[in-house]
């Protein structure tokens, strides 16, 4: 099977796209072309058998036309030879009109088209600072209309069960889980707490920095991930002051290695609509690496931590409570080790990516086969 994977928004080293889904396709012997903003993100594609990389511009803020135009060009050229086109951005839905006709003009059936739904796109509009506040309600309405149109015309994969509520039909779910390391990780230490993921105001950047200042020098907070422009200066200042170590974006394997032996993993999401239906992948990653979780009470994260007694839940926008939770873990080695052990066991039992990898590859293979059969039937009827 030949799969064209495209994004103009996500980092080319995005864990779900590259390290989970593309890795799963390669492990199943499929050929993958990966179109992503490599140069714009300062990333050099890693050479791998059966994986070809294509550079695209990055869609950022209001500057999206160039990226969409180039993405459409790649979809026209490369999609005609693909069995499946896998899209990772709602923006790329705008590049689809007329493509099926262009693909069929080349003599082939055209690929099965799949949109991998990562987030509640309409709810996320509230956190897009580049969208004027007055325009957010109509933009949300347009997004919802685009989603309804997409489910009538292409296949959808959902990253969360709760995303089903946005659609009229039932669509398959491929949960965004972590891979539990085979080798036992180090026991949780006592001197550093780690945040892993994109850093933004909605994800609690200001609370993370305030918490780091409260904990310094007993505990060093490490932040791993790219940052939105409006919080980058705050992170740089905290890093200069020595109270927080901001690593910036690290490749997935390097980022996960920083979890090993940490005191705690941090998830300080704010109470935003986009986070109320999502399980933060970072929480699952912390559990997989056997470290306690300190999280705000977003529903799925809080339920996961409380059900497995693998961390501490603190109030939204309360850096002092978060700092107190980290201190409690620092002062009680038995507690942090027990919570880390329970979290790792729960992750291994029901939150391990390899099982989802089989589900993911199976859906794409099934849609590709159905598309080919449909095309054969159309040819036979002529």
> Which segments are poorly predicted (pLDDT under 50) over 5 or more consecutive residues?
377-382
Return Rg in Å. 22 Å
User: Helical proportion?
Assistant: 40-55%
**Derived structural class:** alpha/beta
Mean pLDDT: 91
Short description:
This protein is an alpha/beta fold and about 375 residues long.
Q: If you had to describe this structure to a student in words, what would you say it looks like?
A:
- By secondary structure, the chain is of the alpha/beta class.
- The protein is 43% helix and 14% strand.
- The chain contains 13 helices and twelve strands.
- The strands form two sheets. It has a six-stranded parallel sheet, sandwiched between helices. Strands 9-8-7-10-11-12 form a six-stranded parallel sheet, sandwiched between helices.
- Helix 9 links the parallel strand 10 and strand 11.
- Helix 1 packs across helix 13 and helix 9 crosses helix 12.
- The C terminus is likely disordered.
Fold blueprint:
Elements: E1 2-6, H1 15-27, E2 31-36, E3 51-55, H2 65-79, E4 84-87, H3 99-105, E5 112-117, H4 121-124, H5 136-153, E6 155-158, E7 192-196, H6 205-215, E8 220-224, H7 229-241, E9 244-248, H8 252-257, E10 264-267, H9 281-288, E11 293-295, H10 299-308, E12 311-313, H11 319-331, H12 333-350, H13 353-380
Parallel strand pairs: 1-2, 1-4, 2-3, 4-5, 5-6, 7-8, 7-10, 8-9, 10-11, 11-12
Keywords:
six-stranded parallel sheet, 382 residues, globular, 14% strand, alpha/beta, 12 strands
């Amino acid at each position: 099977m030949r799969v064209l994977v495209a994004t103009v928004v996500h980092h080319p080293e995005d864990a779900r796209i590259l390290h989970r889904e593309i890795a799963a396709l390669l492990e199943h012997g499929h050929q993958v072309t990966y179109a992503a903003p490599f140069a714009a993100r300062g990333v050099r594609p890693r050479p791998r058998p059966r994986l070809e990389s294509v550079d695209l511009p990055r869609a950022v803020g209001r500057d999206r036309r160039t990226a969409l135009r180039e993405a459409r060009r790649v979809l026209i050229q490369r999609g005609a030879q693909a069995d499946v086109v896998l899209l990772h951005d709602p923006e790329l839905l705008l590049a689809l009109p007329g493509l099926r006709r262009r693909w069929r003009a080349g003599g082939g059936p055209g690929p099965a088209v799949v949109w991998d739904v990562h987030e509640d796109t309409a709810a996320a509009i509230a956190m897009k600072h580049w969208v004027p506040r007055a325009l957010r309600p109509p933009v949300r309405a347009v997004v919802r209309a685009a989603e309804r149109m997409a489910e009538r015309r292409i296949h959808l994969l959902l990253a969360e069960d709760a995303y089903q509520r946005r659609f009229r039909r039932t669509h398959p779910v491929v949960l965004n889980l972590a891979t539990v390391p085979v080798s036992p990780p180090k026991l949780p230490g006592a001197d550093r707490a780690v945040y892993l993921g994109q850093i933004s105001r909605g994800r609690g950047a200001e609370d993370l920095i305030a918490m780091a200042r409260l904990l310094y020098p007993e505990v060093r907070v490490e932040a791993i991930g790219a940052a939105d422009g409006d919080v980058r200066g705050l992170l740089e200042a905290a890093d200069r002051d020595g109270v927080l170590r901001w690593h910036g974006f690290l490749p997935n394997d390097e980022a996960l290695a920083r979890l090993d032996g940490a005191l705690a993993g941090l998830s300080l999401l704010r109470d935003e609509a986009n986070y109320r239906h999502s399980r933060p992948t970072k929480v699952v990653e912390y559990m997989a690496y056997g470290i306690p979780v300190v999280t705000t009470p977003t529903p799925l994260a809080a339920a996961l931590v409380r059900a497995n007694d693998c961390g501490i839940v603190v109030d939204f926008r309360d850096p002092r409570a978060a700092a107190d939770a980290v201190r409690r873990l620092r002062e009680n080695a038995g507690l942090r080790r027990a919570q880390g052990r329970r979290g790792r066991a729960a992750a291994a039992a029901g939150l391990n990516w390899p099982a989802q990898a089989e589900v993911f590859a199976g859906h794409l293979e099934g849609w590709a086969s159905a598309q080919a059969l449909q095309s054969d039937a159309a040819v036979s009827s002529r």
